[in-house]
Amino acid sequence: MTFYREAVYRPLGDLYLTVEFGDELNLLLNFRVIAFDTALRATSIPGVTETIPTNRSLGIVYDPFVTTHERLVGQLKEIEQRMGEIKELPSRHITIPIWYNDSWSQECAKAHGAPNNLEYMAEINHTSVGDVIRAHAATEWWVSAVGFQPACYQALPLDPAFSVSAPKYPRPRKWTPERILCQAGKLTSFYPVRSPGGYQLLGRTPIELYDPKQQNRVFRDGPVLPRVSDRHTYVPIDEATYWQIRRQYEAGAYEYQIREGSYRLQDYLDKLAVHNRRRVQQAPGSV
């Protein structure tokens, strides 16, 4: 893993720049990105119109009639020098029901000549479908980036011991049903609308994470629910419960389970330390 000693500032045309903090997909890098974004928003630099936090970098949109690339980079470096140690970040916890191995996912895989995705994941991870589902549902997931499509996100497991991995399809699908949860590598993602894709299909949620009509009050501030630094817990449900919740949602009666709060970075570091000690103890030749 590589953390840059100092952030790297790169121009992205006339209106954007990116601030890179490292070169790997890693939670600690993402925490740094979010902390920098939080500090930037609190500073209110003239000319900055939007920020886009991603897994390892922060995209910044600016007005070239108000500031210049050189002036903005100088101001951003001042923020970086003032940041100090990151201890805690704002973080909502959202519980999302999932019908794992749902009929839509199975139909989609079959239509594209692929095996049942959960059975395939179980096979390559030398475990069972039930164990794949239990492992995926047992950890909280940290939303590290939102984009590509509205409410499409990437999330990393907050349990360092999470070991279930999934390769992408060798050839992307022409379509994927909406509201499908998916995985590639150790990243969980989401298809908010019917669209092409190549992540392995995990299951379908009966609730919306993207609602352009903003019919549920949870969308009163915008049509996209996921935010960077959210934590998700995925709760397995069966087909009957799926349809029960879906009817509630369509009737406008579903209550989203969202808890405002924060996340202590030490909590993750403690888990990481325990995981690393266990790996050393289990390594061949260890005493």
The helix/strand series, from N terminus to C terminus, equals: EEHEEHEEHHHEEEEEEHEEH
CATH topology of the largest domain: Cyclophilin
Largest sheet: 7 strands, mixed, barrel
- Tally of individual helices: 7
Low-confidence stretches: none
What oligomeric state is this? single chain
- Report the average pLDDT across residues: 94
Report the count of strand segments: 14
Shape: globular
Walk me through what this model shows.
31% of the residues lie in helices and 27% in strands. The protein contains seven helices and 14 strands. The protein has a seven-stranded mixed β-barrel with strand order 6-11-9-10-8-7-12, surrounded by five helices. The mean pLDDT is 94. Strand 3 and strand 4 (57-62) form a beta hairpin. Helix 4 crosses helix 5 (129-138). It has two domains: 3-85, Gyrase A, domain 2 (2-Layer Sandwich), CATH 3.30.1360; 93-265, Cyclophilin-like (Cyclophilin). The two termini are 27 Å apart. The chain is globular and about 55 Å long. The protein has 287 residues and is α+β, with helices and mostly antiparallel strands.
